[in-house]
Design goal:
Blueprint (H helix, E strand, L loop, with lengths): L5 H24 E2 L3 E2 L9 E2 H14 L1 H13 L10 E3 L10 H4 L12 E2 L8 H11 L3 H25 L9 E2 L2 H4 L8 H5 L12 H4 L8 H16 L4 H7 L4 E2 L1 H21 L3 H21 L1 E2 L4 E2 L1 E3 L4 E3 L17 H15 L29 H13 L3 H18 L4 E2 L9 E2 L5 H12 L1
Antiparallel strand pairs: 1-2, 3-4, 4-5, 6-7, 7-10, 8-9, 10-11, 12-13
Helix pairs in contact: 1-17, 2-3, 2-5, 2-17, 5-6, 5-12, 6-12, 12-13, 15-16, 16-17
The chain binds (2R)-2,3-dihydroxypropanoic acid.
């Protein structure tokens, strides 16, 4: 018998150690109510897209937790199919703004069971169900679970297409930066310039957990709260929000997640059978969305997909990691994908950097330490890794994966990381962060 080389043995032990640390992080953040908080103190409730990524990791080592994670989220669905971005299952005074600020009870269609916010987050749940099916060892059991949940996800997509596609072009709007998931991206700076909110008095909690230099500013929070106030005054009615919100954007990441999830629902319903009407509807949405996406969000000069400001009726011409997310949903043609990946490697891919910064490192708005203004995020890397593989950019995909593993191994299970190689203490934001742990488990098994 030949003996495996030392480096392979070391690699094996490194992998086993990291996986067990990751499981530990997730188990520590798991709550008795059957959901997982993103991290202690900073984010003490259930967040929508966090839960999706978390369930992917849990599916590898505790299927029942993964199932509960998504079931508890979908249990908070509103009567109109909407799924909120935070579900306040529990009380906590470590987070602002809490349930008393968001007041989901103002909406006549909100959940009577749970308090929540009245905004949403990227629709990842469809493709998460498909991932859970891929990962599950007992396919029959997971199939039964998916059958019991999938219609709720379908209703959520229906909600988006019926309430948020204002131009009937297959593209849905977000009305708040927190809906994008990329909370304080420089993309929003020019929108803040168009607003002049009051200077609210409130007590931030995030900056008691994390260095203020790594978080949004007080003035940014004024803007965030102001949009919530407008939505509340209109009882979270989408038509009113579309008319009145100063923030109304078509976000490429959000729409790419919807398109990826449409496809996952088509695949899963096909497997289930007897759902021809739903499949036909999903295909219709899908064709329209991909066409609308390529038409409206492609910026020829930048060689990338960009955000679109529906208030000003013009594109927001900056390159972010969201610009590359359409690869994951098979949106670009091969020719366009080549241009996109070239943009990514030219701007973000220098040898002195980890892939992939969240904002264009060549821009003067780039900040490598500040939340979504530049740092590397593991969930975005996971989306990009899978997107690059879709188009067979296997070497770059491998680099994204290896960079992600190295960042966590070197610095810990942080929320976000400095993209500049050789930075001391390059992990920022929340520590023991659930989706960094969950997606590392997937990376190491992939
Ligand atoms: C926060 O509070 O920073 C959250 O990201 C909002 O979703």
């Amino acid at each position: 018998m030949s003996v495996p080389p030392v480096c392979l043995i070391q690699h094996f032990f490194m992998k086993e150690r990291l996986i067990s640390q990751a499981i530990n992080v997730l188990d520590e953040n798991f709550q008795p109510g059957g959901f997982t908080i993103p991290c202690k103190g900073l984010y003490p409730f259930q967040w929508k897209w966090d839960s999706g990524f978390i369930a992917i990791g849990q599916a590898y080592y505790d299927v029942s937790k993964a199932k509960q994670e998504i079931a508890t989220l979908l249990d908070a669905q509103w009567d109109n199919g909407f799924i909120p971005h935070i579900v306040f299952h529990n009380e906590s005074d470590t987070y602002f703004p809490g349930a008393d600020v968001h007041r989901s009870d103002l909406s006549p269609v909100s959940s009577k069971k749970y308090k929540s916010t009245g905004m949403t987050q990227p629709p990842v749940t469809g493709f998460v169900l498909e991932e859970m099916y891929r990962i599950a060892k007992d396919k029959e059991d997971m199939f039964g679970y998916i059958k019991s949940q999938i219609d709720k996800v379908y209703d959520n997509h229906k909600y988006f297409y019926e309430n948020r596609d204002v131009n009937d072009e297959g593209l849905v709007f977000i009305y708040h930066n927190w809906e994008s998931g990329t909370d304080n991206s420089p993309i929003w700076d020019d929108i803040w310039e168009t607003m002049n909110p009051p200077e609210y008095t409130f007590e931030r909690r995030d900056t008691t957990h994390v260095d203020a230099s790594q978080r949004p500013s007080k003035r940014e929070y004024d803007h965030y709260l102001y949009i919530i106030e407008i939505a509340k005054e209109n009882n979270y009615n989408d038509a009113k929000i579309a008319e009145l919100s100063p923030f109304l954007v078509i976000d490429p990441l959000f729409n790419a997640m919807l398109i990826k999830s449409n496809q996952a629902l088509i695949n899963l319903y096909t497997l289930i059978g007897d759902n021809d009407d739903k499949i036909a509807q999903l295909v219709k949405w899908q064709v329209k969305s991909i066409k609308g996406f390529n038409k409206k969000l492609w910026d020829k000069e930048l060689g990338a997909y960009v955000h679109y400001d529906l208030r000003k009726n013009k594109p927001i011409s900056f390159v972010t990691s969201s610009s590359f997310s359409p690869l994951y949903a098979n949106i670009p043609s091969k020719e366009r994908a080549d241009i996109l990946v070239n943009t990514m490697m030219t701007k973000f891919g220098g040898e002195d950097k980890y892939l992939c910064a969240s904002f264009d490192p060549e821009s003067d708005r780039f900040d490598p330490k500040k939340y979504w203004r530049g740092p590397v995020w593991i969930n975005m890397n996971w989306i990009l890794f899978n997107g690059l593989k879709n188009y067979e950019y296997n070497n770059i995909a491998e680099r994204v994966k290896e960079d992600s593993i190295e960042l966590i191994e070197k610095y810990g299970f942080y929320e976000y990381f400095n993209c500049k190689k050789g930075t001391e203490n390059a992990g920022y934001g929340g520590d023991n962060f659930s989706w960094s742990a969950a997606l590392l488990i997937d990376f190491l098994n992939n």
